[in-house]
Amino acid sequence: xxxxxxxxxxxxxxxxxxxxxxxxxxxxxxxxxxxxxxxxxxxxxxxxxxxxxxxxxxxxxxxxxxxxxxxxxxxxxxxxxxxxxxxxxxxxxxxxxxxxxxxxxxxxxxxxxxxxxxxxxxxxxxxxxxxxxxxxxxxxxxxxxxxxxxxxxxxxxxxxxxxxxxxxxxxxxxxxxxxxxxxxxxxxxxxxxxxxxxxxxxxxxxxxxxxxxxxxxxxxxxxxxxxxxxxxxxxxxxxxxxxxxxxxxxxxxxxxxxxxxx
Length: 262
Description:
Blueprint: H1 2-17, H2 20-45, H3 55-72, H4 77-85, H5 89-92, H6 99-129, H7 137-148, H8 150-163, H9 165-168, H10 172-185, H11 197-204, H12 213-220, H13 225-253
Helix pairs in contact: 1-6, 2-3, 2-6, 3-6, 3-12, 4-8, 6-8, 7-12, 7-13, 8-13
Keywords: Membrane, Transmembrane, Transmembrane helix
Protein name: ABC-2 family transporter protein
Organism: Glycomyces tritici
């Protein structure tokens, strides 16, 4: 099965890199968002601190947010949704290939295609804005591990969102809602530390926080080694849990598949 997974991922990877304009647009769009964030937070923080972040730390936080958002939104969620909306899922059900596993390979292959652009954009931002360095070499290594878990975590969240197409027969509104929820509860819009306590508690009980706040907290040393390892374990648990939840939901939904009214 591993060869099949690699084949699906390779096809998705090649499909993504075939559209170089999309690569450029994703980096430019993320770059403009990063510049806007830097401009806003530089005025808010000035020479002081806000939520425990000084200006150098906030620059690092925003750059990590740029990196994670570039990866998180790079998968092939529309391809998955269209297979349901166009009825192609009925053909998939006749194939001796697990639907979720095949879509996971495609999605992660699509995300992998964004890695070069994300690295180039991040490196350019680091050179231009000189953010705070990692708290320690160990913190840097644990940050990388945390970033790797974004791949299965992003697939799990997006796959669950796509499953809603069975009920709504539309995906655009679902995509918008998912993106807003992810951006807010990940801390990409506003650092979790600046939210009211009850909202911080809610955010930490959700998987979205691991897209931005977790890697940034590890990188900046806002948690110790034990805390960083704990966050990574929770992140891994969410990755597995979302995949299992999606499989349960899939098993129920495919019993009620309706294709073109049939």
